[in-house]
Amino acid sequence: MPVDYAIDDNTHNHPDTVSVSLNKQTTKALLEEIHQAYNTQINDVLLTALVQAFAKWTGEAKLRVDIRNDGRKTVFQDIKLSRTVGLLVVIFR
Hints:
This protein is mostly helical. The chain contains 2 helices and 2 strands. It has a two-stranded antiparallel sheet. The protein is extended, with a radius of gyration of 19 Å.
């Protein structure tokens, strides 16, 4: 990935923050309408936006993103996994 400063510069003490806010109409469109238009989930839309922003920034068309899930998705209504002991992690690549 491109860097703004040489490796030996200490950039950890000078972080920048970028904040973006969406209005209610845009938020509703993002959460309820856009992903339905493409028959996907909201995560797919957000990941696409991330990859497009990365490509514009770096010129690279590919980005590997690991997504972790707690693995406790409700599959059966009569089984409660909240009391299950152990780590159930799913990694999507």
